[in-house]
Amino acid sequence: MVNRRQFLTGALLATVSISACSGKQEGGSSGRFSFTYLRPTWGPATYTKNGPFEKELERRAGVSIDVQIIPVIDYDTKVNTILASGDIPDVIWGSGPTSGTWRSAQDEGAFLPIDDYLDKYPAVRKAVPDSIWKMLRDDKGDTYFVPNLIWPQVPFFLYYRKDLFDKAGIAEPASLEEFQATLEQVKKAYPKMVPFTMGYEWHAKEIATSFGTGMFGWEPAPDDPDTLAPWFMKEKEIDLYFWLQDLHKKGLLDPDYGVSKEPNFSTAKLKADKAVMAIEHWGAYTSIVTELRTIRSDGAVSVVSPLGETAGSRAVFPVDRGFYVSAKIKDPDGFFAFLNWTLTEGSELRRWGVEGKTYKVENGTKVSLQDAERPKSYQGPQIEPLGFIGPFSEKLDWDGMRTNFEGAGIGKDFDYIKGKFDDYTRQEYFDYRDPTVVSPTDAKKGTQLFEDNLQKVAQSTIVNHKVTRAEWAAAVEKWKRAGGNAILEEVNSLQKDKSKPEYTTG
Amino acid sequence: MVTKPETGETEILRSSQVTSQRSRLERNPWWGDTIIYLVLVFLGLVTLLPMLNVLARSLSSSAAISANPLMLVPYSWTLDAYQYIFETPVLMRSFGITVFVTVVGTALNLLFTTTAAYGLSKTYIPGYRFLMWLVIIPMLFGAGLIPTYLLLKNLGLINSVWVLVIYGLVSPFNLILMRNFFWSIPNEIEESARIDGASDLQVLWHIVLPLSKPVLATIGLFYGVAHWNDFFTGLFFITDSSKWPLQVVMRSIIIDQSMLGMGGGTAPTADLQKLVISADNIRAATIIFSTVPILLAYPFLQRYFVKGIILGAVKG
Amino acid sequence: MSEVRAAAPPRRRATPAPRGHQSKAALVWRYRWIYALILPTVIYFVLFAYLPMIGLQIAFKDFKVFAGMWESPWVGLEHFRTMFGSEKFPELIRNTLLISFYRILFGFPVPIIFALLLNEVRRMWFKRGVQTVTYFPHFLSWVVFAGIVINILGPTGIVNTLLVNTGGDRINFLTNPDSFRAVLVLTGIMKEFGWGAIIYLAALSSIDPELYEAARVDGARKLRQIWHVTLPGLRPVMAVLLVLSLGGLLDAGFDQVFQLQNGAVLEVGDIIDTYVYRAGLLEAQFELATAVGLFKGVVGLAMIVSANWVLRRMGQRSIW
User: Is residue C83 a contact partner of residue C288, using CB atoms and an 8 Å limit?
Assistant: First the structure.
């Protein structure tokens, strides 16, 4: 047994050595630039400091990063306390100027204007399309925010169980009307299964294009291309809601829709013979198929092509958060030099990681390893916190996708899925409203106006069969009178450019 | 002046005596017992089934879970999920932090709460009502996150494991409950000790506390469980993820973070491909891992609910 | 029976000391050790509960997060107007009060009855087993427990699967406005009754067995013993828990409601906290949340004060 004195001495020594270490780092005897970095993580928060990947990154880049993570679900709440405390980390993730809180902190001088550094470190500027940089500039023409880009095309596929369709002799539908008829057939053939399921309203965004509209966005009014109207005033979108209500009423749409809060309950049902058709993210194909095979060896999944002539995909604003640099950062050049490095020399490491740990080379091409194939200290939750930005050009990576398909043993399906992706994205719908143009009324009480007047119809229509079109219209009128008119006016007068957004130029 | 009981003795019944006295009480008729047992079995099942479901999920493969979400026994047995937990260093370390905080925190909670509750059980001290108000108001008005954060920052507690121990040191609710139990201790016992020359502290230590084991066990359990379940303090007041308690890590595993921004009305901007939803069996195993240890504390504490309790019957 | 009733003593304490002729200062000095016992807790509350209450001012301010609360401009009662002026406010108040009221009406007695039943069990393994099992759901967060509830009562849950398989019709427990509040109350009870019983079990163990003895000698039957000995013994705990639960009348259980509510039952199931969450916190409007918190605190305070007054009138020991 260790006696108490030994233990205390040991503890003391440990403390001294820890402080000695950190002293060395801060003293910069190695000349290393160090900074603090706060970011959300989407996966399990099991990040361990100073793992092998972190060390490798720091060694190669010649920096020292002190990472703090917050699970994304609590990020916004916690970050507000941090902003309010004045202790802003050197680099901090946030929603950017599209959010009121961040914009006001930006205006109050919390963050560093970055235009000079973008000029000095061209790889950073080049990583983001000019159209996006332009939107992020404030009234004075300054840029503060480095956006995290996503690919704007994220179609949600309408998947169906090919094996079940074939067994009952049901054909793939080609239009909305056929889709509804198909669901009736499915219901007859498989009375114990749910004909069609989806997780959230948002998952219907590609169905909405069959009605000729892009869901949850502002669009020019049919009779006046110079006036934008929000989604709940668009007749076509209201059509969609009542069409879904009708499916729900007839038992064609999953009764668990809107009730179950299990993640991915819809695809779980598709895999488990409980639903025959389901909407899910286009990238979910590999996981759906591989898991279905473990449950049912003869199971097969296909994707319905876009339904009807107007059908396509609703694109999204290609920015999902991003980061600011604190106005108080000691060495902004150090940070931007590092960022530039990750996009040039460090690009390999950023994108692929370490050979044998996060990727392998097969026939001369790099193949990313799935988490299960990696050593624990190289899995996603350990790598994710050290991510910064990647160039827009990498956001849709067909080569990587192909190797994933091959890795999962379904390489022959790759062309099929890519073809479907192209089918869906051939015709694009947009939110015409520029999220970086702020309507003061909307910023101040937009949410409450929506909650008080429209939430009931918006959230209830599909599952509450008593809601009628007249009620919807009345709710919109009420919203307008309560302040919605001011929002409409402000959005339309402040946003000069009402043309179709272009996210990808430059 | 309270008269000293004629015998001059206070007697504390030991458990054997309690039981023997109880057994002399009238027994229930057989049908009464049957009904009681049936009702209890029903209530037990109502709560046992969810538990079995979580347990079975934690031992199944995740494909089997989507096929049989309502399982009560594991399908395609696997210990993968537990292997994941025990091989994740952060989970093990945060478990240690939670154990430390629960043990040390509860001890401090009990120390502060017991002393204050004993003091406040003396309703005759001047300023009693003022002090009670002082205790009750914080129960109704929370100060809010930001000012609390600023305060803790100024105290140097942000990012320290001690914030988990100190924040919530005294719960007004538990304080009032304990104070009420102190009231139920017959005054005569205390008074006789005082007459023997015992000080307030001695009375508390030698007379009141030994008589209050069920309450101490109960309130200790309340505090212990509150520490165990607390994710809020760790999440908001500790920035260094290596100091997080178990619940913060666990929450990031079991909560579907993709729910963010999925509500009606606004388009979510989250990059859906980035979302990592842990496998169902890992979520279930994490729940088991984080509840079973504290669950086991209860049967251990239960003995204090019978032993040594009562109550000095003042013989007269 | 009157003797039995008398045997359950109202635990009133004899006034301990002659006090009339002592000055307040002398009394304080006399009880200095008692104060010393309370002092650490007072310091704790002043430091950790009262000092940060300065932050409640943001309920009256336009909070600028980076500039801080002192620099933020005053806006008077604007946030209160936002809350009370909301179209939905009457509905939210009604739902919140009704759900809370049902919770107390149906949920309050269950742990007591459960504890009384357990108290009759002599087989220790059975008693401990039931106790441990019933208190398990307390450790599940509502996120998890709501998933279980939906698996049982949901449109394709166990109950409805059984109903449909036996040729019956599906019952929409969760999407029917008529049954939604009942589901909230029942599942709330299901999750917490085992935990709630602990305090009563502790109280039961401190009832003086001599009182039962006396009752038995008087020939009181079991139920009468419970009525005349057990319940009076539990009364102080019941009273204090009831009063304190009234203080939280405007908290109708955010986590549970948030997880279980859906579009079909908003008109009966939307409560103040879920509304504030959607309208305020999602947009980081700390001011609105703080204003609502203040309002709830004031109402809770009024409830506690009046309940305490009623207690005192009934000759019970009050909270202060």
Answer: yes
